[in-house]
Amino acid sequence: MTQNPDMLYFWIALWCYLGGTVAACVYAGVRRPAVRGIVFALTLAGFLANTVALIIRSVISGHPPVTGLFEYMTLFAWCIVLGFLLLWRRKGLDLVAVFGATAGALALAMASLFPAEINQQLIPALQSYWLWIHVSLAVLAEAAFTVAFVASVMYLIGQGRDFRGMPDGRKLDTVTYRAIGIGFPLFTIGALFAGAIWAQKAWGSPWSWDPKETSSLIVWFIYAIYLHARFVRGWSGSGAAWISVLGYAMTIFTILGSKILGGLHSYGV
Amino acid sequence: MIRWLTSMRTAVGLLIAMTALAVLGVLIGQQLPPEVYVERFGHAIGTLVFRAGLGNVFRTWYFVALAGLLTLSTVVCSLKRIATLFTSSNRRLRVFGSLITHLSIALIAAGGVWTAVGGFRQAAPRYMEAGDVIEAPAGGFSIRVDAARTEFSDGGVLSEYLSEVTVLEDGNEVRQHRIEVNEPLVHNGIGVYQFEMLPSASSVREVLLGVVIPADRPGATDARGAAALAGEAATEAATPLHLEVPAALHERVPVLDTGISVEVLEFLSDFTYDIETRTAGLASPRHDNPAVFVQVWENGRLAGEQWVFAGVAGHEAEGLPCRLFFLDYIPDFDRGLTRFEFTHQPGTPLLFFGFAALSLGLCLVFWTRKAPPNPA
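Predict the joint structure of the above. Result:
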């Protein structure tokens, strides 16, 4: 269970996030400030452990933790929780913020399914500074999309119902929009632009219609549809929220899809 | 027509149609042989997939037409909105960002089309080893391979494929370059990429031979004792003696104290035999059917020689005092066979410029001090 030194902190982070998830569920029911404090403390503790795990791993491997799905999902969890922590100070959004621990727990649980060995020697294709530019920007964008997804799901759940303490629909819609407003440019720069430059350097062409490239383009299309659909009558509100959910489903497929579909990206993430 | 092109519904509709086709393309799999689609989806659907071009959907006329319409829509829409740049002073930066974003789509599309029409990407027709020269398909130069090798870290993990090359123009050496996976050679607008690397097809670092000596052979008992001392697996006195003998190419290696020596004279990574010329040769540079040609010496006298194949039991040959097996080998990664890919992508700078503009535009739209208002 603790074969690498970073794994101890990995598991601490996961358990903290799981504890935070339980506390968040309690908070959703009782809405006591003390419980909210517990959620925050557990989320923050998990985030710190997650940070330490990533730092130890980077020091041992000698490269940023962006190779392989274990590292990717661990970094993804860190970025997601960071995104939700930024929401804590926003008034009226605490019910969104408390579920950051849940999203982090899910990402780390997913990470635990993949081999955690530390590769000190990167394969030739990954020996480029574009690796961390491309992957770290993409993972930040995907974390922003996670925040948008959670806000969209809450928007859809709360629509037409009267849940105590549920943030109002317009606020959730704005969180979704702002999160996509952060994630969309990051995704464009990191996943597509930086990816194209690196692909040109490594494979001789900026675009090869590889399954992961195409999936990323689909993600970009879906969020572009989201951003445009909001100006079309009848598409805003729940329509846009559904598009955000669809975009996130495609984002997850893009992260994990190359395991199934293969292609040029199948050696990494 | 202009109204239709500039409608938001049109843009969203085109994006949805392209997304749907792209999803289909990813799920179906691209550029596979027709029989694969038939195998995956059955005869009727598999044939339909292939005939409708869904197996190469991103190059079908309807996908290209949708992309063209979307590009036209964004351009017309942007031109129509240029006037707002001068009227809305408080949101000028964001309007400017939006214009750049939409116009950049046209630049990216133009870059892609330019490469598709005027570019190429082709793998070299053959593998090359040190000393070989190949002419680039364009650009008026040739490449001479000075060295090709695969490198490993201290832990034995693959660390790099590299080819040291000299660029020749009219037979004159122009420049030298070390081509690595992320370090292509770019000369006269032609990119030369490390495409494939194989260990040598005719050289080998070490061969592990299995030597089986009959139990009744004089000296076998002594050899058995020596084998036990050397840490080899002990076998019963009545059974043949099995020994593992590591040998480098052209190195005569004694088999303990049996008086037998073996020497590997030749290695072929993919053995084939020409019946007409009665010569052994390479079927391909791949390591699909490795074989070694071994001479067996007995008390300083050549006893016989034979080809021995990996994974195949060695046959008993007349005159040979032992049976030989080709158990394993360490390939020669220092004298590798390299294969390049030549590319010419004239639209790439324009495409990157488009991407840079797109990135800048989106940053201006979403990240300038006053974020765009929630239109909902």
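Chain A touches chain B through 53 residues (CB under 8 Å).
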